[in-house]
Amino acid sequence: MSDLLGTQPKASSLSDRWGPVALYLLKRLLSGGLVLLAGTAAVFFTIQAAPGDPALAALGEQATPEAIAAFRAEYGLDAPLMAQYLRWLLGFFQGDLGQSLAVARGMPVGELVLQKLPATVFVGLFALFLAVVLSLVLGTLAALNRGKATDTIATSIAVFGISMPDFWMSYVLIFGLSLGLGLFPAFGYVAPGDSLLGALHAAFLPALAIAAPMAAVFARTLRAVLIETLSKPYVTAARSFGLPRPFVILHFALRNAMVPYLTIVGLQIRYILGGVVVVERIFGIPGIGSLMVDGAFARDYTVLQACTVVFLVIVLVVNIAVDMICALLDPKQTVR
Amino acid sequence: MTSFRRFMQNRTGMVGLLIVLIVALAVLIGPALIPYGPEDMDFMAILAPPSLAHPFGTDSFGRDVLSRVLLGGRVSLTISFAAILVAAVLGSWIGILSGYHLGWTDGVLMRIMDLLFAFPSFILAMLLMVLFGFSSVNIIAAIALVYLPIFARIARNTTLLIREEPFIQASRLMGRRPSAIMLTEILPNISAPILVQASVGLAFAIILEAGLSFIGLGVQPPTPSLGGIMSDGREYFSRAPWVLTMSGMAISVALLGINLLGDGLRDLTDPKLRERA
Amino acid sequence: MSVPLLDIKGLRVGFGRGAYRKEVLHGVDLHLQRGETLGIIGESGSGKTMTGMALLRLLPDTAQVAQEAMLFDGTPLHDLDETAFGALRGVRMAMIFQDPVGSFNPAKRIGWHFRQVMKRAETAAGGVQPTGDYRARAVALMQEVGIRRAEDSVDLYPHQLSGGMLQRALIALVLALEPDLIVADEPTTNLDKVVEHQILTLFKQIQRRLNAGMIFVTHDMAVAASLCDRIAVMREGEVLEVAEAQRLFDDPQHDYTKLLIATARKLASPAAPRGEPGRDKPPLMQIRNLSLVFPPSGPRPAFRALDDITLDIRQGEVIGLVGESGSGKTTLGRALLRLYRPSGGTLLFRGEDITRASDRALRPVRRELQMVFQDPGGSFNPRKLMKDSLAEALRAAGVTSSREIAARTAALLERVQLAPEHGERYPHELSGGQLQRVAIARAVALDPALIVADEAVSKLDVSVRAGVLDLFRDIQREKQLSMVFITHDLEVARYMCDRIAVLYHGRLLELGPTERVFDSPSSDYTRTLLETLDYSLGGRNFGQAGYGGTGTERAHAD
Amino acid sequence: QSTTLTAAITGYNVINSLDPAKASLIPEFYVIWGVFNGLMTFDDEMNIVPDLAETVTPLEGGGYEFTLKPGVKFHDGSELTAEDVKFTFDRVMAAETASPNAGKLAKVKSVEVVDPLTLRILTDGPYAPLLTFLTNARTGTQIISKAAFESMGEEAYSRMPVGTGAYKVTDWRSGEGLTLTAHSEYFEGAPTFETIEVPLIAEEASGVTALQGGQIDMTSTAPAADVSVLMKDDAIKVLRQPGLNTRFISVNLRKAPFDDIHVRRAFSMAFQREAMVQAVIFGEGVTAQGLLPPQLAAYYSEEPRPYMSYDPEAAKAEMAKAKYKPEEIEIGVITWSGGWWKRFAEIFVAQVNQTLGTKLTVEVTDANTAYARQKSGDFEAGVWGWLGMVDADEYVGDILTTTGWRNFQGYSNPEVDALAAQGLAETDPAKRPDFYKKAEAIAMEEMAVIPCFCSNIHNLLRADLEGFVQRPYSNFADQFRSMKLG
Ligand SMILES: Nc1ncnc2c1ncn2[C@@H]1O[C@H](COP(=O)(O)OP(=O)(O)OP(=O)(O)O)[C@@H](O)[C@H]1O
Ligand SMILES: Nc1ncnc2c1ncn2[C@@H]1O[C@H](COP(=O)(O)OP(=O)(O)OP(=O)(O)O)[C@@H](O)[C@H]1O
Ligand SMILES: [Mg+2]
Ligand SMILES: [Mg+2]
Ligand code: NI
Predict the structure, then answer these.
(1) How far is the C-alpha of C434 from the C-alpha of C427, rounded, in Å?
(2) For chain B, which chains pass the contact test of at least 3 CB pairs under 8 Å?
(3) Using a 6 Å cutoff on CB, does residue C331 contact ligand 2?
(4) Which atom of ligand 2 is nearest to the CA of C334?
(5) pTM higher than 0.90, yes or no?
(6) Where does the ABC transmembrane type-1 domain start and stop, copy by copy (chain B) (predicted)?
């Protein structure tokens, strides 16, 4: 009975695993592109269906009818809708996002977006970082001490976090840590390029306000997943080999909990971005979330379109990145 | 019966249920017990601090904040509940359809869900509100649209998991119609994760509704909603901190209850946790 | 005798607290000498695993363990604190788990596991300077347990190895620890017979080399018989009896032991020859050059699961479909029922071509083609009462009057030897054997012409297996059904089937009357498969031939 | 002493254009006032005095001759001449510019340059508000540099304008803020602060926390609710005074039920304006009984007007005279979701409903929709109010005359039109107010709009910041030059 033990696969080298990755990436990007197109079209036509007028936002309540007419002519708003959208699309494919109508009248939207993006990305990443660190600590502590006081405390903190909507959290933080104790600025944004420490200091409260509910969600996920991996036979097996406990926790339990954990992190990105919008306004962070809110209120469809593109791209990129990391972490799947 | 007993054992779940019941009772019959209506203005008592007469103080129109918080809670909960209900029903249906038929149906439906899902939740809701105007129905629709893809995905994934289960196959082998199989075989068996997601979603829907109202895209006044009261309270926080604080704490308590209840439900329905409990 | 290596008295294990406490071990006594193999047999859930886990303190936190005494090499284990115990576990005692695939960290390569375990062994031995060349040692160990191309294998991830290889790797890992006591928890249950055979051989060699005491947990009588010196029989958390292997089979004391042995013997004895039923009748189903290709999905390329299969199923005959795991048995079964759409060839049912018939067109034919599944629990909607599931089937068969449905449901239950009250239960409230009976009843309710039974008894306990098989056979004869009986268990196939079809990598390797296939197999593969019967069919001589518990080592030509 | 001042514009975060001819949003003017000068300006007592002009001489038949101060330098170092002034005015008036501020110069016939420092503005007959409209207020007639404008082009100029003001724009981050740098050759002497950072803070409340947290030194506005609390705060100086504004309920006279005068009068008497001031703006304002606010002192009528105070009985009686039944009036009052504007509508609706038994509802939209619907006449009633208008004609002429461009309510009365026209032509400051007072009285009698209140304007400063003189039209950057830390 010679070769019945199954065929011997080759040790998989990285290049083997990256082979299908390229194809997968291509597919994801293609479908992402379609989503992008559909998204911008949806935004464009709904904003046009909505009442309101960018001219009014640009010119204010004092605008005279003549000024409004001139404005509409200047930005081609008197053309048929389809023509307007196609013109935008054409520009988009040439890398031209058009001019802002009302939020920053006449300014190239691409430039505008590039100006706002760093703040959002910085605060968002900072929030993500805080959420991940907090949740790793809380989730691991809770899972390892399941049913004990530590678990109860950590889980309570997590539940408390979820029960604090970000805007409410912002105020609690402002009045507690900022105006109360004077530990952090209540307002404003420092570009990390100017001073990294200053930027972290200034962005701490907004990032924490966004991160708190997320950290809670992540922590609870991690706790559940970790409890599950801790009960996996390979953990018991590792213990039966007499491997030290911290080692088992780190390399067996946590390591294998990472894929489901990261998947949840990826899914929550849309909440982080959503939270950024509200918190940006409260803390006066000049980010893309505020820009999009302004764009929506001002019916500035070019800005709105560009923000849509940016948000869709961020979500797409994050999801692909998470999938990639998961694929890297999980030798079983090249890509899902 | 057994699952109910098991739930009774679940301390978190029970505490959550208790809070939810208290909150539900408070918002349902509370307003009737308070001598002031939520819309009764008293210009003699504008921004009165908490007192025996007004345990939560009054707002800028001299309205009793407690009764407004209770009614606002009712409104917020109703809206969130309705939104989640719509999202869950519609989403499950889409998900089952997608997961059962696969192929073309699946492709189209899921791409639409992907599109909805790609938008940051708050921004999607906000855009919808700006575009279609402010009203309770529109908020419900906006929140429902935000959650639709989540339910659709869960329903689809669980459907995919069980569509190859022997009992579904057995049903197919009996020659039953797909719609009957989806309704009587699949739906009852994917209801658990949907239910758990609904409880989690409810908490987020409340947050979303409050967030919308908070930036001024909420229900029409004078109807109060928790977010609306907070938004008002924020404006005169330094004068009358109780309005924001009390409504903020109210929302936290409601969320706490729902979250704990959701945890309990999850423990209950997750067979893995169940085994080990 | 000297101090026993292990002496357990009054071991109790319970879960939960207060009113919810459930005791799963009610005072287990066991002892073991160096170099001795103690078998533990018993049905599923009897507490075999718990005994081993309690011994190594691997039970979850929710478990409470109590014992009168637990001595390891004279040392009272229960007096040791975590640290002191930790120094023993993995050094002097080790466990091999039931599920080799699950025992490896899926995120790490095989070699990594060896390195960690070896480091651990060195630290325990007080070795100051690490030897470093873990890889070479790992390769050597892997070679020792018979893993081909061990050099490559250490660089693979667990999922890239077959179950058999992983089981060997796990054994090699435990070897690296060189323990005095090995607890092996059903290490071969998940493997097919061919591999099981190899591994058991290996086991015995290793134990001998280390002169270790071994507790070998299994629910397979035959395996226990051929491997162990003494055997303990467990049921519901209690040790019913312990005896020398030979004596246990010759002179079982306990009724339960007697039942176990009788069942095993019954399955092992070939059924009375039945000729070839239906030879003269027109074939019910004609399968011509059937092939099935699973389309590529994700990174996985297209896969040809069935290749050029030609086979007739005659009226009233039972065809056994055997073959190693992954050979396409299930796929063929499902293709026959048109749950899959074949990629090539034709499928004639009563002469009618159903190869490409649409779902709608199939609906009337469906009722004639039924399936009984491997997992009795999974084949019922967990939210429906059993009688409702049966009623569903009856309705699908065209019965409309609710009175008739009730009557027929009762009759069906009776036919499969269940009481009416079983109809009032939910699936999880029935045992596996009972569920499978209802599954048979449901299939029969539709009055089918063909039933495909896919591993329909492999999830059942040995003690109930024979009963269900008999039920199958009775009903099949009574209704003159045709049946495709999928199994990887040759005993079962021989017991049940008129003809045997052997699948290998999606191809039909051999087809013939049962007797002929068993007596003079025409392919090498079938022959290899049959070799495994030599020990598992020990029914002819339980406890005598084997892997040399006390007997002589069995010659094995590789 | 720090040479940077951080002066935040709060409550707004959009600045589109710093080109005076194109500017129309309040925050745009906040900045323009510091970057440019007009020919005229307001002094601390709100008198109109020359700024870039040295002398102003009225001309026979309408118009003025101006001589300019010599040696006034633009930011680019070039000198101001009459050509720049003519260029500025011609551009505002030109149809192709489509300036939202063109109306200010509507009666100007031509602008003539006499010599480099002298010019004449000729009008079609006497045009009383002309000098007001040439001040450095929300007018759009601030003087730009012809040479710089022509070399830069409109687009670039509107972002980095070249004016004569004490500060020049050196950095502009859209939606975020601007940086102003001192104009060292400013004709009245170099300012104290070298740099002024002007962040744009969308939320007024955030402005307050930023000020309290020390991230900014002053704000352009303050949330009314916080004022009384902030006044007790020693670290913060609160500047407040009644503002040049009137908040009213704009009613559509072309549609039911407001085509009925009795309904309008009944509504006006059905709510307490004092309570409104308390509840909506926390007492930071005064009740109004007309459109002309008390700060336009000469034009303000103190004597009580009929129908302008709360009188439930009279309101019901008035309602009974109407052709509509109160319980059948089910209209929405449009407002938008910004702070107190929502409460404004809410309290109006609640009180009127309570007094009259009507079924009004509050219809909250966003500001853009609210503007659009009022402008297009697609409304029954809505809250409204103009801010920073400095001439009586902007109230009576624009809002109450048949052709007035701010007349959204569709009010038309020939008598009012005639009086407004007379007021426009009356250059004698002593006689002029009479026309407007009369016109307003008539319109208020007919309840062309339902006036509610005038709100205070505020600036918040850190306690040691000095030299900011607040003007009732809510000024801002024009004061930067004189400010210093005490
Ligand atoms: N964590 C647990 N909590 C409660 N009961 C448990 C737990 N783990 C196992 N049991 C119960 O303990 C009993 C003995 O289980 P054990 O795993 O020892 O059986 P076994 O004899 O090994 O069965 P098998 O042949 O199926 O492996 C079973 O009834 C099982 O349900
Ligand atoms: N839906 C599917 N898609 C792709 N490949 C499949 C699918 N189902 C089965 N396969 C593959 O087809 C091959 C045959 O599978 P099948 O389930 O028929 O084997 P089997 O003989 O029943 O094995 P076992 O004894 O383990 O049940 C396997 O390699 C399996 O991986
Ligand atoms: Mg076991
Ligand atoms: Mg199979
Ligand atoms: Ni061999």
Answers:
(1) 9
(2) A, C, D
(3) yes
(4) 18
(5) no
(6) 73-262
